[in-house]
């Protein structure tokens, strides 16, 4: 089954399989299945054509995949253009939502360090 150009995994429950689409999480997947009157526990491969079409119809009202990614990147670009604080944080590759940076934020900064012990030298016993 393909929705928005994404092939859904057939061996997973449809509730979980829908979350492979960018912009669809568990709660939105459950809401869509509720509106389409499809059981959550049904496997993706067991869906009938009518059920697939109903799910597609319900998903058309949401921005997903490419449209959503364009919207998000446009929002970030706008923040950078107006030189907002959050835009500057995005430009510098730092956390933009107020997290501390003295420790943590290693993934955002790309600073990979090895964990040290206590910082003391080992004393050899004689």
Automatic annotation (TrEMBL):
Any single Pfam family the record assigns to this protein: Ribosomal_S13
Disordered, as annotated region: 89-126
Superkingdom classification of source: Bacteria
UniProt GO MF annotations: rRNA binding; structural constituent of ribosome; tRNA binding
GO cellular component: cytosol; small ribosomal subunit
Swiss-Prot/TrEMBL keywords: Ribonucleoprotein, Ribosomal protein, RNA-binding, rRNA-binding, tRNA-binding
Biased composition (Basic residues): 99-112
GO biological process: translation
NCBIfam families named among the record's database cross-references: uS13_bact (TIGR03631)
Subunit note: Part of the 30S ribosomal subunit. Forms a loose heterodimer with protein S19. Forms two bridges to the 50S subunit in the 70S ribosome.
Function according to Swiss-Prot or TrEMBL: Located at the top of the head of the 30S subunit, it contacts several helices of the 16S rRNA. In the 70S ribosome it contacts the 23S rRNA (bridge B1a) and protein L5 of the 50S subunit (bridge B1b), connecting the 2 subunits; these bridges are implicated in subunit movement. Contacts the tRNAs in the A and P-sites.
Similarity comment text for this entry: Belongs to the universal ribosomal protein uS13 family.
Protein's name according to its UniProt entry: Small ribosomal subunit protein uS13
Lineage of the organism: Bacteria, Candidatus Tayloriibacteriota
Protein encoded by which gene: rpsM
């Amino acid at each position: 089954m393909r929705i928005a150009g994404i092939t859904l995994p057939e061996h997973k429950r449809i509730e979980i399989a829908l979350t492979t689409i960018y912009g669809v999480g568990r709660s939105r997947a459950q809401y869509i299945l509720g509106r389409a009157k499809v059981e959550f526990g049904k496997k993706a491969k067991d869906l009938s054509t009518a059920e697939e079409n109903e799910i597609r119809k319900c998903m058309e009202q949401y921005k997903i995949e490419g449209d959503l990614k364009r919207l998000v990147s446009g929002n970030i670009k706008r923040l950078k253009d107006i030189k907002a604080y959050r835009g500057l944080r995005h430009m510098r590759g730092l956390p933009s939502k107020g997290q501390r940076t003295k420790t943590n934020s290693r993934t955002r900064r790309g600073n990979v360090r090895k964990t040290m012990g206590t910082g003391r030298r080992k004393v050899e016993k004689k």
